[in-house]
Amino acid sequence: MKNQDQKIKLRVLVLTILTMFFLFPVSDLNGQDKKLNYGNTTDELVPYGRFQKAYKNFFDDVQPFTGAGREKVPPTDLTEVRIGFLGPLEGSILTPLGIQMLQGASFAIEEANNKGGYNGIPFKLMPHNDVGLWGAAANEVVKMNDEKVWAFLGSIDDINTHVALRVALKLEIPMVNSGDPDPTLTETRIPWMIRNIADDRQSSYALVNHIYREKKHSRIAVLRANNRYGRVGIMEFRDAALRYGFPLVLEIRYNDGEIDFATQIERMIKSSPDAVVLWGNAKETALIINQMRQMGMEQPVYGSDRLMSKELLEIAGENAEGLVTTCQYNPTLDEPNLVAFNKNYNERYGMEPDVFAAHAYDGMNLIIEAIHKAGLNRALIRDLLTDHKTFQGYQGITGELILDPSWNDIGSIWMTEVRDGKFDFFPTPPLISDEQENKKSTP
Amino acid sequence: MKRNKKIFLVFGGLAIISLFFIQFHKWSVHHVNYITAVDDHPLNCMSCHLYIQKDGIAAKLINEDYLSPYNLSLAPDGKKLYVIAQDANALLIVDTKTNKVIDKIEVGEKPHSVVIKNDGETAFVSNQWADNLYEIDLTSLKVIDTLKTGSGPAEIIFSPDEKFLYVVDSYSSEVSIFNLQTKTEIKRLMAGNNPVAAVFSPDGSQAIVTSRRTLPIPYGTPPMTELTVIDAASQRVKERKIFENAYLMENAAFTPSGDLAISTLIRPKNLIPSVQVERGWMMTHGIGIIESGNEGRMIQLLTDEPNSYYSDPFDIVISPDGQKAFISHSGVDIITVIDLNEIRALLAESTQEKLDYYSNHLGISARYVIKRIPTGANPKGLVLSPDGKYLYVAERLEDKIAVINTETLETINSIDLNGPSRITVARQGRRLFNNSGHTFQNQYGCYTCHPDSHEDGLVYNMAGADMGRNLANTQTLRDIGDIPPYKWNGKNSSIYKQDGMRFSTILTRTESFNYDDLDALVAYIVTGIKNPPNLRYNPTGELTAAQKRGKKVFYRTHTNCGKEIPVENQCATCHPPPYFTNMQMADVGTLSDTDDPMLFDAPQLNNIYESAPYLHDGSAATLEELWTKFNDDDEHGVANDMLKDQLNDLVEYLKSIRDAKYYKDDVEEYKADINQEN
Amino acid sequence: MKNNNRFFQKNIKVLSLILLSVFLSGFSISKQDKSFQNDLEDNQAKPVEISSRVSPETGSDIKDEAQQMPVYGNWETFTVKDGLPADKAYCVRIDGDRVLVGTSAGLAVYENETWKTYTAEDGLAHNGVLSIDVSELTGDVWLGTLGGLTRWSAGRFETFTQFNSGLANDVIYTVICDGKDVWVATGGGAGSYDTYTREWGIYTERNAPMHEPWTYGVCAGGGKIFIAAWGGGVIEYTKETKQFRDYVDPDGEMEIDLFPDDGVIHDITTGVTFADDILWVATYFGLSRYDGTRWKGYLDHDSGLVSNFINFLKADGPVVWLCTDLGLSSFNGETWVTYRKNENNKKGKIIITEGENTKEISSTTSISHEFVIGVDTQDDVVWIATSKGVSRGEILKDLTAGL
């Protein structure tokens, strides 16, 4: 009896240990998932979360596409499989980024064609400039439709990408965005686009966490570009800062192409910030950093993803030391695919790939793979790209793709700091919750 | 000594005078030869320095105020003839029994047409340059109401029940429909391009509206001119009949039975090299017919003859018995009489293919033209007496009305409207301008390509021996006296040169004008052709908000990005007020592959809104296209930084630019700005 | 202890199962959370669960205005097989005795029971015809296409593009005629064209309270023009004063609706329509109604609206028609009637919702496809444009007829 009891006890013990062993990670997973709101937003950063539960959360579920089109029979007389490209190719300050993006996309196409294209039919990239006169993006997508592309990649500029997305919906062309981090782009419920680059929401959360929770700054002044990238990009940062209890002490703007920022910097000095956030393109930001240092501002500088650029280092030189930015991937990782891409790209185009080239390469590969799997049918290609299965966890050279219900990439994001004239990459630290923050501050 | 001194002084003075005279003569010869581009001009200083005076005492002395009867209407009982005196801004009333002018009513600027109500008590007159109608009580002879219309009201017609009035807005290419009970415009229907005339079918079920210009057509294609059919019941356009290879459909008429609707027209061969003129058939003239049967078959037939053309057909009337049609040919001062039964027979026996062939056939007219009746200068409007026995012809440049007996087909009377008896040099020039006598076989006059002394909207292959080379868009002749050089390439330094030797060599292919005629023609062109008021886009001089913004764009010196625009690439550099041309040559990057190399004379911009298509070869259909299609490299002004709404503003401003006389202040402002910058 | 032991002894298997199921459920939850819902299967028009979940209407004025709600049926469907140039139809407009349908391959005109197609070769600005309106004054047909604006007047096609005219942008989502004026919602701003003065207006963030120039819908009514500005809510333009004002989502957030009925549901608006002094606003997030004083929102979980994803809407008197991705809903302020297709037997479904009561009726005929993109009504007839064909329905005078 005693033995039996012991046996039972032992069984219960083993079972309990086993159960606990299995349950711990599960509860841990569940615990973490409980915190995950839309867009990786922590509870304290949820809009109005401290005061009111929303009547409706729009992105709890997935918007299906219920239209016709899946029944369409693929053509049999094709000599090339066309894939569209929309980007700033000339006439824009974003042209250098657009060229990198085009090269990244072309590189993926070339690789695919070297492997036999689509069942022996070569892929053909159909590039379109989104910067044409008198509002070109919408018309360019219409042209792509007339060219009978099966999907397209684009773009970088927020406005043009939004316009293109609207037309993509009407024409029902699958779209992959690899270069526009505007958070609102995927908040439209249009089931024809996925994004494979982290957005400004993720950048903002990373920066807010780093600036306020890790570096303990409290007075932040923002100087941003007076364009949609600057305006929309800073929105999530501003809101998150406010929700952490630190409203911005100043938010001012400059126009693209400006070279003298004395007025704005004087205003920043007057606001006595203990750190500065710059949100804009690399060139102007570099000039701002130089002028800030010149005018005696020694505060730490943080900035948006587009600052992670060679151009910034060239213009700002030593003044850039200590600059912290976000970046949607880490190009220095020792991942074989990434290393190979960097090497081959450099050989092919005589330059290092940037973030737009790398994400375009991944984005184009998603399209190519979707075409391979779904066949030549736009609706089926769309289904595949958006099914949250086929490409969920896709390992590209830019990292793991995690799509949320709005098909936004909420995978990991990186941070960089300029050290010794180079960008040093480090993983984004986990967001520090209010609870953890309070624990830390309580002796 | 004293005597010697006197002799010395006299001879010295004479020598100085001689020297001065010799030098002056030398300078005069050089000057005249330069201006006229010939070396045998009689050196008549008055040619240029008197006859082309636009204002002042001399101008008043040498010119006269003519009447220029244009269109006509008869009282329902035929006892009174109402005559539009186009240049006198008046409605003249003629007693048809005594053939005397018995009354004159002042009307608005540049009246076009008059209609009389069935009760004979009310008339409506369209004032083409005032954008309104006058309602006139014919008992009291007073203007009792003014109705605002679209732009350039021309012909007016009543609906059969006289409850509605249809007005053809010739400049804005619409038909305004007025409810006569409420005196309100209830709608505007889109018509053809530059419509002028309208007529109701005898059964009152439909109205047709003819237009003069081709519809906007793809560059390099022959003209297509619309005849608009309006359904009377719904008051909507029910059909648009397109006459291909035709234009200048000035007027139309229905036969009393309604079996035929007939319009005058011209068939231009504008895309054929102009060397064709000396072979004939460059411009042919005739009628367009729509049958009520045969599914509305459309036919074109010529009224010309081999080796003899009857240019510029204007008005058409049909006798009450439906047997004859009368057409005024204002370019050759002829009334053509057509036997409509022959036309009917021809139509009945011919297939469409055959009729298409006839549309180019110069000999077919022998079958149906039964008489050519000569008239005074420039016959325009026609009207038949209610019984059909008399045809009244407005002889515009004669200031008379011819009366023709329609039985004998002879002119039986001439009603003098009491205009000036003297024919001035400019009036003579106007007659020459409107007459085809100087062109090989009378194929066309100046008027043909420059209706209303403006432009016909066509592109011509000028002088080139090859198809499609050196295409030239017809330019306006309005107010061009002070803005040499002429031609798109600016090769003609004066109108003398333009209309002298070059004119005969390239255009008329006959003897050139003698110097008296040339003096007259130049006098008319310089003094007699004015811009209509820009009532459509700038009626008062107060610019709209968009136009004001556009004006800033026009005069801007920096791009949207703040970059300075090179002076030569600023709008106002080549287009300064008051004429908005610096009269200099420039390369704006619009030379086409089919052009010989040349620079372009900067064109004036006054009333530019009514000069479509644009550019030397008419390749820009609209003002917008100048910058959206033909300015890739910012050669025609820096514009590629602009947003679309800025371009719209610029276009709105350009459309607001009116006659040069309004821009004296702008000139001073502009000069002041330039000086300040310098 | 002994009892306890016995308990364990007796129930060890049960306990094991419970523990295992807890473990498995935890695992499955975690897996579900990570991968999200697979919508591939849902794509095949998953039926909407109709139950008594509908909350009662709160606005008494809505009830007062409600009239008897007509029910349509006897659906007749037209596709390529019947003469349409393409199955995908973007819009439909009834014009007297004929019906105009904008498809992806041109304009189709149904007259005397036959279809005739007009394409770019005939003079259309582009074969993709997204919107159609007819001028009541002139009878001219205005066509908003993917390549410009076309006026079709008694057979003559006249095209306005951003290159040859003052048109804001060539992609025209909506065109309407308002007296002598024509208004368009384009990818580059809203635009107006005065057919008398020929003046074009462009309304963007530069001169109107929009964030960006993207517009999607436009309607006229009550002396005003309403513009559905993508991301900018609704822009109201008062014709008399030429003043603008905007209506935006008060919570200012894209991902939530904080309070119901506090304003337009979402800033991304897809269409506007005005009738009987009521402004209706479509979004991909639900429907909003504005009576000039108060806003009221309708979502698929709190009303008879079949789907929040509204492609287009059109009000005709008290009834608003809603083209959604899951069928055609209609609503008169009190009663919802939704028309769907039964995928199992190709018959139709009519779902009637009033307050908390929902009734589903099977009908022998059905709309051609549930992805409805355009609608127009006149007298007793409704026409719809769908992702696959167009359908014509008529009022069922006796509700049982045709069911």
C-alpha end-to-end distance of chain A: 53 Å
As a percent range, the share of strand residues of chain C is over 45%
| CATH architecture designation of the largest domain in chain A | 3-Layer(aba) Sandwich
CATH class of the largest domain in chain A: Alpha Beta
What is the helix content of chain C? under 10%
Largest sheet of chain A: 7 strands, mixed
Our count of helices of chain C gives 2
Q: What structural class is derived from the secondary structure elements of chain C?
A: mainly beta
Shape of chain C: globular
Averaged pLDDT of chain A, please? Answer: 91
CATH 4th-level superfamily of the largest domain in chain A: Response regulator
CATH topology of the domain at 85-331 in chain C: Methylamine Dehydrogenase, Chain H
Span between N and C termini of chain C?
Answer: 69 Å
Polypeptide structure, described:
The complex is a heterotrimer of chains A (443), B (678) and C (403). By secondary structure, chain A is of the alpha/beta class. Chain A contains 13 helices and 15 strands. Among the domains of chain B are: 426-528, Cytochrome c-like domain (Cytochrome Bc1 Complex, Chain D, domain 2, Orthogonal Bundle), CATH 1.10.760; 545-677, Orthogonal Bundle (Cytochrome Bc1 Complex, Chain D, domain 2). In chain B, a hairpin with a 5-residue loop joins strand 13 and strand 14 (206-213). Chain B is globular and about 90 Å long. Mean pLDDT of chain C is 86; it is low at 22-67. In chain C, the strands form 7 sheets. Chain C has a 6-stranded antiparallel sheet with strand order 23-24-25-26-27-28, with no helix packed on it. Chain C has a 4-stranded antiparallel sheet with strand order 1-31-30-29, with no helix packed on it. Chain C has a 4-stranded antiparallel sheet with strand order 2-3-4-5, with no helix packed on it. Chain C has a domain at 85-331: Methylamine Dehydrogenase, Chain H (7 Propeller), CATH 2.130.10.10. Chains in contact: A-B, A-C, B-C.
